[in-house]
Specification:
The protein has one helix and 34 strands. It is mainly β. The longest helix is centred in the first third of the chain and has 31 residues. Bound molecules: beta-D-fructofuranose.
């Protein structure tokens, strides 16, 4: 106990000195800091969550409160690049029409000013909205143990769901002293309640920094926390830190979702710099241990990270992810903003796999519709009114022959989807998609006579849902606004298109003021 207090007071005094430093820097910075604004909306999404301007990364605090959905995000309002993290905030009553609210958290305390208010989650308790987040403080020197940061967990509370107060008990949680747990990386708490208690899982790694792990804590009140166990830990090539954990029981099955960093490519798998994955298993609330099998990729596209889940008012588990990837170029930075979120997706466990489908609420965004059925084509074909820079494409296609579908096409510029009937491999290629990074990603599908595609286009994003959630691929693309064609290309003689429907989406949703 004495050792714990000595350690806690040592940590607090370091934080105090650092914060004095940070404050003195911030005072200067505050004079100059002016939020950036959107200067060109050519790639700004119509119906996805994006920052009013400035930078956004992880989803945070996704929860329900007083009959509405609240969603927060890692945000830096003063530049188009990552900076000391704030929490941006939007609210919705249907998961698809979002209203921007004022920034919810700013880094301004001993425990968060020296780095930022890093990721975390939200929960309603006794009529108040509680946020649990990581206060990140960069140390100016390495400790003798080689630690470069202090990551502590903190609580902010709101009565009105708009204004938040950081509680005086903060930090409520430091990394447990243990030679099985890294003493620096300790972030991204996801909190939930079960049988009258609160649980929080936190991303971590082993002390040698080679293997990711997730820690679990228990609390009667969200303020006093007890370390329960290492809930799960990686094995060979499963990443060196496990960020942004989430847990839910979906269709009777316990599911752990997280974002391992630095998994090495294995053939065509794990080509993105970091991954987001899920594991099915069994969680034991007594021991705090999650027994599980291997992990599997959650999204096979180029751009998907740090997803966060919540339960809807009617009991569905819904996920929103960051529709971007660390270390990519972000061409929209030239326009005063950077990065965006995915559409909300419903999760189900079927056939021992996690299925991901767009939430039904997205249908309320549909405005006009154009449908075709039973078409057999023998050359590259565009269909009347099946085109756009935003919209939703549904297609049921015969899988006995190879085919391609070109999206956001001008002829020269295009994002190419293709299917190989012999291997059942479906690909997305963005080498000719416009500005930004190129490359190819793929997924192998289960045998089936036909393929069902549901594709969401939103100016600089493409999200492809295959076979009612069997696989999903999310990617950013940066074509010219005029590249709007959709071209169906038979590659084995003919192509049977059982159904094709195109909906325009999101007309009338307010857009940012372009300055
Ligand atoms: C994941 C992450 C989190 C951290 C946040 C900082 O993308 O690295 O682990 O809390 O971003 O912005």
């Amino acid at each position: 106990m004495k050792r714990f207090f000595l350690r806690a007071s040592a940590i607090l005094s370091i934080m105090f000195c650092l914060t004095l430093l940070a404050f003195s820097k911030n005072v200067d910075a505050a004079v100059e800091r002016v939020p950036v604004s959107v200067t060109n909306a050519r790639w700004y999404p119509l119906y996805h969550i994006a920052p009013p301007a400035g930078w956004v990364n992880d989803p945070n605090g996704f929860c329900t409160f007083k009959g509405e959905y609240h969603f927060f995000y890692q945000h830096y309002p003063y530049d188009v690049k990552w900076g000391p993290m704030h929490w941006g905030h939007v609210v919705s009553n249907d998961l698809v029409h979002w209203e921007h609210l004022p920034v919810a958290l700013e880094p301004n305390q001993l425990y968060d000013a020296g780095g930022g208010c890093f990721s975390g989650s939200g929960i309603e308790k006794d009529g108040k909205l509680y946020l649990m987040y990581t206060g990140h403080v960069d140390l100016p020197v390495l400790t003798p143990e080689g630690i470069d940061r202090i990551e502590s967990q903190n609580i902010a509370v709101s009565e009105d769901g708009v204004h938040f107060t950081k509680i005086k008990e903060n930090p409520v949680l430091f990394v447990p002293k243990s030679d099985e747990i890294h003493q620096g990386d300790f972030r991204d708490p996801k909190v939930w309640s079960h049988n009258g208690k609160y649980y929080s899982i936190i991303g971590s790694r082993t002390p040698d920094a080679t293997t990711g792990q997730i820690l679990i804590f228990e609390s009667p009140n969200l303020i006093d926390w007890t370390f329960k166990n290492i809930m799960a830990q990686g094995s060979e090539n499963q990443g060196n830190v496990w960020e942004c954990p989430n847990f839910a029981t979906i269709d009777g099955q316990d599911v752990l979702i997280f974002s391992p960093q630095a998994v090495k490519p294995e053939g065509k798998k794990y080509l993105n710099v970091h991954q987001s994955v899920y594991m099915l298993g069994n969680f034991n609330y007594n021991t705090g241990i999650f027994t599980h099998g291997n992990f599997d990729i959650l999204d096979y596209g180029f751009d998907f990270y740090a997803p966060q889940i919540t339960q809807t008012f009617d009991g569905r588990t819904v996920l929103i992810g960051w529709l971007d990837m660390w270390e990519n170029p972000f061409p929209e930075q030239a326009d005063g903003w950077s990065c965006m979120m995915t559409v909300p997706r419903e999760l189900h466990v079927r056939k021992g796999k996690l299925f991901t489908t767009p939430v039904k609420e997205l249908e309320s965004l549909r405005t006009s519709e154009k449908s075709y059925s039973n078409l057999t084509i023998n050359k590259a074909t565009k269909l009347d009114s099946v085109r756009g820079e935003t919209g939703e494409l549904l297609a049921t296609v015969d899988t006995s022959k190879n085919f391609a579908i070109e999206l956001r096409s001008s002829g020269k510029e295009k994002t190419v989807l293709s299917y190989d009937a012999a291997t059942r491999i479906f690909k997305i290629n963005r080498d000719k998609a416009g500005e930004g990074a190129g490359g190819e990603r793929e997924v192998q599908l289960a045998p089936a006579g036909e393929m069902n595609l549901r594709i969401f286009l939103d100016r600089s994003s493409i999200e492809i849902f295959l076979n009612n959630g069997e696989a999903v691929m999310s990617s950013r693309v940066y074509p010219k606004s005029t590249s709007q064609d959709i071209v169906f290309v038979p590659q084995g003689g003919t192509l049977n298109l059982k159904n094709v429907t195109f909906y325009t989406l999101g007309q009338g949703i307010p857009q940012p003021n372009v300055k």
